[in-house]
# Entry
Amino acid sequence: MSVNLRQQWLHGFLDVCLLCLLAERRDYGLGLTQRLVAAGFDEIPGGTLYPSLVRLEKQGLVETDWVPSATGPRRKYYDLTAAGHEAVADRIGSWHQFRDSVESLTVQAQRARAERLG
Amino acid sequence: MTPAEEWSRRLDRSLIELGVEPAEARRLTEDSHEEARGAGADPSELYGPAAAYAVRLAQAVRTPQPRLSTMPAGEVVLRLSGVSKRYGRHTVFDNVSLTLRAGEVAAVVGANGCGKSTLLKICCGTTAPSGGVVERTARIGYAPQQGGVSGFLTPAEHFRLFGAVHGMGRRKAVSTGNQLCRRLGWRPRSGLSAARLSGGTQQKLNVVLSELNSPDLILLDEPYQGFDQDSYLDFWDQVLKWRDAGAGVLVVTHLLQDLERVDHLVELHRSEDQ
Amino acid sequence: MVSAVVAVTLRELLRRRRALVLVVALPLAFYLARIDTTGQAIRFLALGVGWAVATLSLFTHVSSRDLDQRLAIVGASPSALVAGRQLALTATGLGLAGAYFALVALTQDVTHLWTVALLLGTSVLIAAPLGAAVSLLVPRELEGALALLSIMALQMLADPDGTGAKFLPLWSTREFTTYAVDPSGGADLTQGLLHFAAVAALAAVITWIAGVLRLRPRRLPVPSTR
# Structure
């Protein structure tokens, strides 16, 4: 699959992915990038990641906190607000609906293809 | 100045140019700088070029559009039934019909000289149709192609004048106007009259004046001419935001891109003389 | 609404620096050209003030045409727009007239000085709607300026005693001038006042009706619900 297409898709779902990661535990920017990679996505550029986090903060779904670090400069931690937790539940529901719609179409297409070939 | 500081300075300046409040711009810049330090990376490496990053950040912090229209969604705001326009024996267009509801966008397209602006003037009520019926809601906004602003007046003076028409207080009109400008990525400087603004910025003023009164229907005649690429994208973004905020939008355009996003397409063809 | 239009028009006028300098300079040039004969100097000053104000009015109305149209489309009252523009122009004109009245009072020996004030004031009150009326008939500033030039040239050249002169807008100025300078000169102040009132009323009514007709959008019915 082309990197370009994957990036476009992730772009559309980045907010959901970030909310889900933060629902698991609070994290700082670099940590989120690493966890996205661990989940199987391509590395996301900071120029895309941080504006998304700023938008979520603006929407009141995420709050931030500067935490001093023993080893180096302080880090900005992102965490869900109460509204953020509600939004996660809401978006997971929406995602499942959306995924099911796409899934049903792909299954149909696969079946049609199999019949034509078989 | 280190490269990181230089990058931050450029980010701060770009954000302010894009209409972000200076205090917020400073906060975003400081945060970005700190965050890069925390990640142990050079900001230009982490975020990319400052100017490009500023555009994305500015879009992210832009305040969401408040609900515009007072109309329930789906209410008809403009209805054209078999509208035609003739000058003598020359038919400009014939039998144009459209039902535009609150929360929908319609685009009027066609080559130059096929009567797009005439159709818009008919919707404004300044030109009489030769045939057909025009029904339209009363609370409208209108951005003409040109001449919609006075070169001798500052943006704030425009806001006060248009605010007076809509029965808004002076202060309310100016603060609303400035807020709408920021949404188009522009922060008006006081004391600068419209004639001294760039062509694209004048058009932004033109567009902002059309939505000052939170109208139910916005009529626009190619108001993005002179916009640069980013502002052009922001313009369509704005059109869709108006739609989402519940207003009906009618845009006259000769550009055929971006039309997949509109709800209705009115195509005018150059008709032959009959 | 009217006050907002007045404020905006005054600001626009003040920012048209070059036009403003010409407007101030023109009557002065007329005045200085005839300074040796009091009556002529005052009459030409009044014509100069009238011409300057009419031209300023013309330019203001032509340049604000598109903006006023736009304001009317979104709900501004056409009468308020016309009235606001006219009030601002009249006030500016009266300010100019006041300054020149002071100049005359200081430099000329006039029997009925108050008539000079009347004369300059009436010129402004005629010129402001005259310029507006002309602006409604012409597409651009150039044509309007030429039309005003013709009217003013006729006004200066026509024999004031001929019947044709009575059809020119500023005929009354001569009556007032004669009365101001030489009360025994057989001038009829009442006739001058009547002429002024008739011309000013006619110009104002034409301006108002034509302005409203031009600005008022067609009334469009509100769509039926579904």
About this structure: The beta strands of chain A are 27-28, 62-67, 75-80. Helices of chain A lie at 3-24, 29-38, 46-58, 82-117.
